[in-house]
Amino acid sequence: MSNEIGNIIPNIFERKRILMNSGIQRNPFFILNVNVRDDRKKIVQLTEEKSLEFDHYLCQKARSDLTHPRNRLSAELAWLSGVSPGKASLLIEQLLSDPMSIRSESGIPVLAHINLLASVFYAIDIKDDSEDVSEFILQFVYLIDQIKIEDVMRDINEDRLISGFPKILKQEQIVEVLAEQNQYYKTVIKDGLNRLDPLSLIKVITSIVSKSTNDGEIHAPSLIDELIDSYEIECKEFLQEEEENITQLIKVAKESKIANKNLIGPILDKLETVVMNWSRVIYPILISAKSRGLENESINKIAYLLLHCAAELGTTDCVNRINFLVKGVYSNSNEIMQLIQKIEEEKQNEEIEFEREISYQAEIGLINKTILSISPDGIIWKNQHYALDAITRIRWGGVKNSINGIPTGTNYTIAFGDNNSEAIINLRRREIYSTFIDKLWRAVGVRLSIDLLHSLKGGKEFKWGNSIIKDDGITIYKTKFFGGSELISCSWDQVNVWSSDGNFCIGMKNSKNTFVTLSYANESNIHVLERVIDYAFTKPEMKLLSDVL
């Protein structure tokens, strides 16, 4: 694979470049103009000559490095070992005059080629195309993976046989120094990347990790893993800032459900934009984690926050939007994708169960029969359709009839509507009435109860009959005997509730004449209010109705 990449010379790389202070140019062999086959005497001689032209200390340091066994090995491993002196000189000239052309060279020992390419990274700048840079990095990294210690040891010892320096006897010596050299290779790649603009840098990182891992399906070369680890550390501050922005937008979205549902859509738009910008940075981190069989918990926590937000917002549109967003960002996280699959399966099962629980159809009327039906698609009555989510009010009740004290049946009323209209159904068959209101409650009443609690928690007040319902209590308009009225405010622990003659009643515990009656059949959502208060009263030490949320 490396040979194929090495034969590519992108047009963008053909412009004139100046190479300065590269690894090759800082190598003791380059500083003294010494080749790997020169003996100690020649090294000393060239040191004296170069000291007259260049920095004396630098030249003496270079001489010491080339004559000290341990330091010499470091210089050799960073040089062109295994390349003849003549060929080495030509390659150095080529590197300095046209750095990028080194990429297409062939027939060079692997380590020598790597060291030349390492210096080419010093020529990368902001003008370079991101795809060209990513191909270059991959060529470089795959070459590093081709290093064979026995070949390197052979090349160095062949040169040392001529120069008179002692042979390397153990491969461990080379392995130890090469480990240090690998850190240098990682550094030159990082420095090259840091000369790109931020967007190009992210594109390069994403490209090299995607291609080297087959989008997370196989292990990457170790140097790629190290680069991604460094990238994650350097992105940490940015990621934390964006995660805070995401967390804040999630909080605002949840609050908007209570305060103003119309704001949820624009907030989700903003949330999607921020998450997608954040995802471009974390995408290579997730791919790398997948290739290593790992999960990045710090990044995955955002997925959990988003999915929890979707569950709290509850509406199908919000859930679908957020789930789609999370799937797009976390497609390379097995943990998150499995979680989403589980959530969607549970949601599908809930929808099937919900459909089973609420679906019902009946004929109303003795002669001119009219179909009344309810399902997840909505309620149909007299060819008028009401979507379940659009229904904002429900009511029902019955009035018993009698003649001369003899019961003659009951007239039942069921009504439901949106903000614009209301459907009213009058019937006499108890089984249809009972079945339908049970379905209606499951389909709409539960949602209206939750909406009421959220509205109360948000500070909204509701007027029902001669009362005002608040989260922390009720205000009752009490009519005085001689005219006029007064307002009596009570906390919830100061009142009792009961049903009487088709009415829901709320009254003060210590004042029998201070109460309000609310008709189940004639006033909207009294059943909703009753269920909310009854449920809240089951909670010990309840102060606010919304405490049950």
UniProtKB/TrEMBL annotation:
Name of the protein: Uncharacterized protein
Organism whose genome encodes this protein: Legionella maioricensis
Highest rank taxon of the organism: Bacteria
